[in-house]
Each structure stands twice: as C-alpha cells, then as structure tokens.
Design brief:
- The protein has 262 residues and is an alpha/beta fold.
- It contains 10 helices and 10 strands.
- The N terminus is likely disordered.
C-alpha cells in the first residue's frame, strides 16, 4: 500500500512497517510546512493502527535531510518563526509519545533540524559515508526541534556544546563512537539492512516495546523509586498479554516466538 501524503512525503505500509520517506531531494529534503504536516498525519495513523508496529524515516535522493530550508530563512517574522517551530514541536512530541519503535535510516547528510529529527527517533541506522552536523550557529541560530534536549542526554553537555558551538560535520564513525548511531551498514546494502532490522522489530512483542520506550524515555527525569514503580505497574499489565503467554510457550517448546502485538 502506498500513499503520497504530499509531494514532500511518501508513505508506504507493508508487513507491519510504516516506511516514511522525506521527498524533497532537490533541496536535500529540507523541511517544509507540508513535510512536517505530512509526518504528523502519518504518525497519527501509526498511533491508532494496530497493524503498524514499527515506523522508519528515511530520505530520498542524496541525503537524509538538510534540516531547515535556508532559502526561507530571514523571511519569517518572529511570529512566523514561533508558529513554524510550534508545528515542528508538535511533531517531535508525537514521535516520543508514539508507543512504537521509530527507526531513522540516515544516508548522506543529517544536518540541523534533520539531525534532530533523527535524534527524536528511537534508533539511528546509518550508511557508510554519512555525516552529521548541527549547523545552526553557522547562520547565527540556536538548535531547535529538540536538539538541545536530546543531544546533551545522549552524549553529555560538554560534548553536545562542542558540536553545537563548532557546527562542524562529524563522520558516521565518530557519531557511532559517541553513541549517536546504533549501526553502520555498507551503502550498497543499506535499504535491505534497514528493512531486515525493522522487520525484526515488527516481529517483536509490540506492547512490551511500547512500555519499554515510554519508561526509558521518562527515566532521565524520574527517580529510581519512580522508575521502579513504573516497571512494577507496567509489568503487571504486560504479564497478561497474549505475547507473554506465547513467549513462555515458545521457550518451553524451544522455538522462536510468534508475537501478535496483543
């Protein structure tokens, strides 16, 4: 099933995976209002459609995303900027509230808000030769789209400030060493590897994954006692699922589990 949300986004749903492709290759998939709105619409569908168990976000053409559209910068009024970022912020919150794994598939450049879009995902897979850069300070801006939230928590405030101040690209290998990237794959096999990775997630216990994502994301703002209580309440819920019963049976029968997401 394929659905063109707009000229700026392509969405395909197959085998439990919603594949989203940013589709402005002529501008290296720089963000547009239509693209952000299309992403929000797609994620809202993923939230309510139980047949969708994993979401992937990739870019068409030569890059994942160049982030904000530089051609449009300097033209917005302060109110226009405030409203535009409000729309972007709603997208980022939707991504974090979606109780399903979101995988960023990065090739080429992930720059500025494009880098931050990848950081808002749950995992980042990257192709050989990819580069990451928070280029905001090059044009006299601060990071937006959650970068000042996600990056310090991921790599520490000192390293995050260095990347933000210098605004220089880092290689995919350095991004991996910092813990930003989960896996690096050869460019020629990249799409296949992303699909294999996503298919494995789609075959997993999606209810449990939803609780894992929610609790892990909240843990940095929670005390140990709060996380322990969240674990206790959530475990009491997932222990009643069909997937838990199937997991026990598969373990006893020494076979792979056939999870159904219930």
């Amino acid at each position: 099933m394929q659905n063109n949300e707009s000229d700026h986004l392509i969405v395909e749903i197959q085998d439990g995976i919603m594949q989203i492709k940013l589709n402005r290759p002529q501008s290296l998939n720089a963000f547009s209002s239509e693209m952000i709105s299309g992403l929000k619409k797609a994620l809202s569908k993923a939230k309510t459609d139980m047949n969708i168990r994993v979401v992937t976000i990739a870019g068409s053409g030569r890059a994942f995303s160049a982030g904000g559209d530089v051609k449009g910068m300097g033209r917005r009024t302060p109110l226009g900027t405030y409203e535009h970022l409000g729309n972007l912020n709603e997208l980022i919150i939707l991504m974090k509230e979606l109780e399903k794994p979101i995988v960023a598939a990065v090739h080429g450049y992930a720059a500025g808000a494009g880098f931050n879009l990848a950081l808002a995902c749950d995992m980042i897979l990257a192709a050989d030769g990819s580069k990451f850069v928070l280029s905001f300070s090059k044009v006299g801006l601060i990071s937006d789209g959650g970068g000042l939230y996600f990056l310090p928590r991921l790599i520490g405030t000192y390293r995050a400030k260095e990347l933000l101040f210098n605004a220089e690209p880092i290689s995919v290998e350095e991004a991996y060493s910092l813990g930003i990237v989960n896996h690096i794959y050869p460019f020629e096999d990249f799409e296949q590897k992303v699909m294999e990775y996503s298919a494995k997630l789609a075959a997993g216990p999606s209810t449990a994954f939803g609780f894992i994502k929610k609790i892990a994301d909240q843990s940095l703002q929670s005390s140990l006692a709060e996380v322990l209580e969240q674990e206790r309440i959530s475990q009491a819920t997932v222990a009643t699922t069909e997937d838990h019963a199937e997991g026990i049976l598969a373990f006893k029968e020494k076979r792979s589990s056939n999870f159904v997401g219930k």
